[in-house]
Design brief:
Blueprint: H1 2-47, H2 79-85, E1 90-93, E2 105-109, E3 147-151, H3 155-158, E4 167-171, H4 172-192, E5 196-203, E6 213-220, E7 229-235, E8 241-243, E9 250-252, H5 257-260, E10 266-269, E11 274-276, E12 291-294, H6 298-303, E13 307-308
Parallel strand pairs: 11-13
Antiparallel strand pairs: 1-2, 2-5, 3-4, 5-6, 6-7, 8-9, 10-11, 10-12
Length: about 325
């Protein structure tokens, strides 16, 4: 019996050793995988940013980061702005700065902000935003005027007419790019009766009088942005025109400075002896009998006794 027991024990041990040998590759593979996973986890933890050590902390959710594209992206409104919108509709327009430039405009827009059904749009020609230096080009449609008086918050959304804190000097191209965004907001308000948190920011560089771009953000309020949600960066440019943003002067691309200032057309007031640009607001009050168009140069007109209009500054 003892011999049989010893033989059975030896046979069992042999079987365990054979099983152990067969399982050894599996154990080694598991150990290797475990080691690799531990190494990967350690590496991932080592790469996590440590506040104050590997760079600045992540931006808080209330900080807006400018999108370098004109394509719509996500709006970024602060918790304070959202809390204010909960109290109802409002409109805020920044006071003009020392250079006469507009600042950001913020509003919570709803049916109560827009024009009444029988309300007509008012005249805004008396407003000359900073950098207003009108010029005309044959390749620009609708009369050829380069500059438009662009509402930061559109009339159809705010019923604001000649509010100087809501008007910037903008190209026709930029103004036309704003219209689909404004239409989207207006259509949402008309359809739902809801409100839209809205902001427009003119972006100036240094002491430039004309904004390089306007950033527009909108978010439908009651549904948390389900109906309207965009952030668009609209470049204040016009195809075919070179713009000096410091003062709003311009010239056709490829045209040298001497050619750009060589001659009219100018509108003369033969009574006041003033030289006007064709888009000057003073022309509306000029009597037809005193109006005369001229293609002469400024130097020639000044030699004839005329002087430049201080409003449109044709120099």
């Amino acid at each position: 019996m003892k011999e049989a027991g010893r033989a059975g024990a030896v046979e069992g041990r042999g079987e365990r050793e054979r099983t152990s040998r067969r399982a050894r590759p599996l154990r080694l593979a598991i150990r290797a995988l475990t080691s690799k996973a531990a190494l990967a986890l350690a590496l991932a933890l080592a790469l996590l940013p440590v506040p104050g050590c590997l760079g600045p902390d992540p931006l808080p959710p209330d900080v807006a980061v400018e999108t370098p594209s004109s394509e719509p992206s996500e709006p970024s409104f602060s918790s304070e702005e959202i809390a204010r919108a909960r109290q109802g509709a409002f409109e805020d327009y920044s006071p003009l700065d020392d250079l006469g430039r507009c600042g950001p405009a913020l509003a919570c827009l709803g049916p109560e902000n827009g024009p009444k059904p029988d309300q007509e749009r008012g005249d805004i020609s008396d407003i000359h935003p900073s950098g207003w230096n009108q010029a005309f080009y044959d390749f620009i449609g609708n009369g050829g005027a380069l500059w438009n008086r662009c509402h930061l918050i559109a009339w159809q959304l705010s019923a604001e007419d000649d509010n100087e804190r809501n008007l910037v000097t903008g190209t026709r191209q930029m103004n036309e790019a704003m219209i689909p965004l404004e239409d989207e907001v207006a259509e949402y308000i008309d359809r739902t009766g809801g409100h839209v948190l809205y902001r427009a920011i003119p972006m100036f560089e240094g002491n430039d009088l004309v904004a390089r771009k306007v950033v527009v953000e909108a978010m439908s309020f009651e549904d948390g942005g389900a109906g309207v949600s965009f952030r668009a960066v609209l470049e204040n440019v016009q195809d075919g025109v070179e713009i000096d943003y410091s003062d709003g002067t311009s010239r056709a691309q490829g045209e040298d400075q001497e050619e750009a200032s060589d001659g009219g057309p100018y509108i003369l007031n033969t009574s006041s002896m003033k030289i006007h640009r064709p888009g000057c607001g003073a022309l509306e009050n000029m009597a037809d009998k005193n109006r005369e168009e001229s293609s002469a140069t400024l130097e020639e007109l000044i030699d004839q006794g005329y002087s430049p209009c201080g409003l449109c500054n044709p120099l």
